[in-house]
Predict the structure.
Amino acid sequence: MNMTKFMRLAAVLLLLGTSAGCNRQTVVPELERPARPDTDEDLLKDSVYYYTYGFYLWQADLPDWFSDIRGHTRQYNSADAVLEALKGYARDGSGNPYDRFSFLDRWGTINAEIQLGYAGNFGFDVRYNNDTDLYVKKVDTGSPAYQRGIRRGWQIVSINGVSDLSLSSMEQDNFTFLFDALDASQINLVLRTPNGEEVSVGMQRANYQIQPILSQGVYSVTNKKVGYFAFDSFVSTVNSRGGTTYVKDQLDQLIAQFEAEGVDELIVDLRYNGGGAVVTAEYLSDLLAPTSVGNGVMYTNKVNNGLDAFLRSQGIRVDFSPVNFNKTNGLDLDRIYFLVTEGTASASELLINNLTPHIDVKLIGEHATYGKPVGFFNWDILGVDLYAVSFQTFNSIGYGDYFSGLHVDKLVFDDLTRDFGDPREDMVAEALYYAENGRFSSNTQSQQLNGLARYGTMRAREINRTLDRHGVKGMYTFSAHVTP
């Protein structure tokens, strides 16, 4: 495709009503989301093709529809369907699509949650502990669920009067009942607490500020101290005006506490962290890296050959030059243990991959992480944000092809019956064992058997994988990285 022709056509679309959304300020989305009849869906479909082609990491694999764009896009009933079709063209050696990630955000949810730190939901997520028992896996501080006293480790007995929540029952409608209930505006629950008491809770969705640090602490292990924190989302450390956010302040305070207590090793719990802002992954990489990194390369980016020229034609520049470390704090760790599941994705994987060449990193958890070494920036088209995969990251030794995930060093299953940071919880306990003994425990076979007994079938694992991906996920570059 002739790039000059492409830019000219893209400029026409811009004049017809699209605009660069990288500097757009987005408010917290309304809880009631009415239909948007004002959106010109046909123009949106055309625009999705144009801009995906311009931004796409795998641009060379996309079809050339420029001779008759509308003839191609009108085959699809929505702009989302156009994007789904485009995602199927770039494939790996086994024939699987690389792109499981690109999407349209019609309500500004990503900007609200990841950059501004606001959510509008019940504030709890669930997971199966076996084939029959559904548990609360986490609760967001300050959310409706938290305010009603719900905590991780509570079993869900019924949802909206339905008490058979087993896998076999829920999969009869492909889990539509469960996902619809979690995404509804109100919900009624009966829950069983760890002491066996049953409580009934009714609540409505509400807006609240996300607190990404779910738990923190320091353990004394023989002659060393091991820090711990559970980090649930990479909410941006930089706001849309280039200033710092409450998340940066919280991370600074946390790391200063670890420094003051003389922490030697650190457990970073990312088991449900599906990612977020790239700038936060960079900042946390700086905080956790050893002092020996100096100002060396943290990671590099790969983009399509015409991306910079196309963005400049729109009056926008996104900086994809190599990113270097900027280590300024005094925390100098000997080892980091990352606790992960297959829901650990994107910015979480970027953090792990950034640090692996520079410090002893151990991955503890379920099988492998999600496998998303790619990310996006947002582009506003008629009030709809396009997130088309635009860049791939590689660490300082050039590794970045982990589409099948980062594999664990020690297989340990999530113990839903214990809270974050409990030293008896299986993942935390394994990290502390290594800290004390310099090796993993030798009960690999029994752990696998216990885990399989707890999770039952492969179907349970697949459903938990889906549940872990519920909500906002990704690796996002926002306006702090964009200059006119």
